[in-house]
Amino acid sequence: MQNDGRARRERRSTRNSGPAVVSREAETAEIIRRVGTDRSHSDVLIVTGDPGAGKSTLLDLAADHARGSGGRVLRAAGSGSEAHLGFAGLHQLLRPVLAEAQGLPSRQRSALRAVLGLEECAETPDAMLVGLAVLTLLSDLADTAPLLVVVDDAQWIDRESLDVLSFVARRMDSEPVTLLVAVRTVDALPGFDKGYERLELGPLDAEAANLLLDRQPTPPIGRTRVRILQEAAGNPLALVELAHATAIRHPEGSGVEGPLPVTDRLERIFAGHAAGLPEPTRRILLLLAAADTADAPAAAVGLPEADDEAWVPADRAGLVRQDGSRISFRHPLIRSAVYHAASFEARRRAHLALAELLREEPDRRAWHLAAATVRPDQDVSAALQQTADRARRRGGFAAAAAAQERAAQLSPRREDRARLLTEAAATAVFTGQLGWVEQLAAAVRECTDDQTLLGKAALATGQLMSLGSPHPAAFALLIRVADEATYARSPLVLDALAAAAVVRYYSGDESQQRQIQRLLSRVPEDAAGAALRAWVLAVSDPSSAGALLSPALPGLIAKAKGDASRLTALAIVAWLLDQTTLAARTFDVAFDQWQARGRLPDGLGCAAGWTRLEQGRWAEARSVATDLAAMASSAGLDHAEACAYALDATVVALLGDPAAARRLVERALALVDPQESRSVAVFASGPSRAWSYSLVSGVSVCSSVSLGWCDT
Question: pTM here?
Answer without folding.
Answer: 0.65
